[in-house]
Write a structure and sequence with these properties.
- It is a single chain.
- With 192 residues, the protein is an alpha/beta fold.
- The chain has six helices and six strands, in the order βαβααβαββαβα.
- The chain has a six-stranded parallel beta sheet with strand order 2-1-3-4-5-6, sandwiched between helices.
- Strand 5 (122-127), helix 5 (138-148) and strand 6 form a beta-alpha-beta unit.
- The chain is globular.
- 45% of the residues are buried.
């Protein structure tokens, strides 16, 4: 079973993120879910991103890095949207990383050093018409990652919803979220 460090999205540590983590636990995985927003949960994504901007994206990434301290090196890093920043940074830069699951976001590999580690498998999930994922270049970064990484998959789901995986938000898409969760669990099951 895998040990997973899960980073929430721009709304904060919502019930939906906690429920996703619980699904991974029920499948037998050890899951850590730090709160990068220090207890704040926002009703709108705009408010949450505003908080992240005022706090500083670098600070959010540093909080994610601090959350990994004291945990085993052999982690799978999972991020939802904004949480992809610390997840991707840690997966790319921490020796011993076992994998990365990037949900609804992906940044260019050059952001954290330029090369994806050969021994770190990665999955990227997003909707094909999501204005953030598809409209702001994340899907292009994901395609580039898949082309260059040794073990990488990109899963595109039909639709235009951002944060479709969070069951506590109006943007939730049950069918796509179920598919994504199934693929995430399959990915975790092959981590040794």
């Amino acid at each position: 079973m895998a040990e997973v460090l899960v980073f929430h999205h721009g709304h904060g540590l919502t019930h939906g993120v906690r429920e996703f983590a619980e699904q991974l636990r029920r499948a037998g995985h050890t899951v850590h879910v730090p709160d990068l927003f220090e207890g704040q949960v926002f009703d709108s994504l705009e408010e949450g991103i505003g908080y992240a901007e005022s706090t500083g994206f670098r600070t959010i990434i540093e909080r994610g890095t601090a959350a990994a301290e004291g945990l085993p090196a052999e982690l799978v890093y999972l991020g939802f949207s904004l949480g992809v920043l610390p997840a991707q940074k840690l997966a790319q830069t921490c020796p011993g990383a076992k994998g990365a699951l990037l949900l609804e976001a992906c940044v260019p590999v050059s952001e954290f050093g330029g090369v994806w580690p050969r021994d770190v498998p990665v999955q990227v999930h997003g909707m094909d018409a999501d204005p953030f994922f598809a409209g702001e270049g994340d899907v292009d970064a994901a395609r580039a990652l898949v082309e260059t990484a040794a073990d990488a998959e990109l899963f595109l789901y039909p639709g235009d919803r951002h944060l479709f995986t969070d069951s506590s938000l109006p943007s939730h898409d049950e069918h796509a979220a179920t598919q994504a969760t199934h693929r995430v669990l399959e990915f975790l099951d092959r981590i040794k």
